[in-house]
TrEMBL record:
Function: Specifically methylates the N7 position of a guanine in 16S rRNA.
EC number: 2.1.1.-
Keywords noted in UniProt: Cytoplasm, Methyltransferase, rRNA processing, S-adenosyl-L-methionine, Transferase
Keyword hit for Isomerase: no
Subcellular location: Cytoplasm
Gene designation: rsmG
Family: Belongs to the methyltransferase superfamily. RNA methyltransferase RsmG family.
PANTHER family in the record: S-ADENOSYL-L-METHIONINE-DEPENDENT METHYLTRANSFERASES SUPERFAMILY PROTEIN
Protein name: Ribosomal RNA small subunit methyltransferase G
Record-level GO cellular component terms: cytosol
Native source organism of the sequence: Klenkia soli
Length: 218
């Protein structure tokens, strides 16, 4: 069970067990770390605490169905670890790297990785920096949530993607409506097969949409 000592932390949704399987205890621990250290260190607003499970953790897990088995995933602009940490907990087949430029956030991510006893890498820097691409290495999928408008995001992550690698970005309904109009610009930036996909239909209110695109070229 979630620690009843943490004020405002909502009951764990029944769906969490199915989403995380035998990693449910680590998912609970992550929620507790977000609600305590995450709030104290200013990474999560206190008003977000009651909705950590649905709006943040399960919403992040929804991305899983758009990520191929065994992929090397880089979560760009991970912040407090969203969507990368819930995604990697729900999908132990993935190799996860969390990229984040802000020192305070990087420190929190490192602490979470150590606390959970997992093997994910944390890389400090901006996605567009060559040093980050070198540190990250080969990537199959880049994930991102609430990092930048799509054309800017693509410009930042292009250097991480080899031809055939994918960008999977969580977007809200209004941003999804704008995607068709952005296709020419995204295509000119070297991306192909740009499409919006509904994900997480089994996750109740955490169901969401992602935009998926593939880096072109050979
Ligand atoms: C609004 S926060 C979202 C954090 C997290 N993805 C989430 O959904 O809660 C945006 C994050 O992107 C990071 N960021 C901004 N510019 C970036 C860049 N060029 N490369 C990588 N991360 C960046 C910020 O430091 C911040 O942590």
């Amino acid at each position: 069970m979630t620690d009843p000592q943490v004020p405002g932390l909502p009951d764990e949704p029944a769906l969490a067990a199915g989403a995380f399987g035998d990693r449910l205890p680590q998912a609970r621990r992550f929620v507790e770390l977000l609600a305590t250290d995450g709030v104290e260190r200013g990474l999560i607003g206190p008003r977000e605490v009651p909705r950590l499970w649905e709006r943040h953790v399960l919403n992040s897990v929804a991305v899983a169905e758009a990520v191929p088995h065994g992929a090397r995933v880089v979560d760009v602009g991970s912040g407090a670890g969203l969507p990368g940490i819930p995604l990697a907990l729900a999908r132990p087949d993935l190799a996860m790297t969390l990229v984040e430029p802000m020192a305070r956030r990087v420190e929190f991510l490192g602490d979470v990785v150590a606390d959970l006893g997992v093997e994910w890498r944390v890389v400090r820097g901006r996605a567009e920096e060559k040093s980050v691409a070198r540190a990250v290495g080969e990537v199959d999928v880049v994930t991102a949530r609430a990092v930048a408008p799509l054309p800017r995001l693509v410009g930042w992550v292009r250097g991480l993607l080899r031809p055939g690698s994918q960008l999977v970005a969580l977007i809200g309904a209004s941003a999804a409506a704008e995607v068709p109009g952005l296709v020419p610009e995204l295509t000119a930036a070297g991306m192909r097969d740009v499409h919006v996909r509904a994900v997480g239909s089994t996750l109740g209110d955490a169901a969401t949409q992602v935009v998926v695109m593939t880096r072109g070229g050979r």
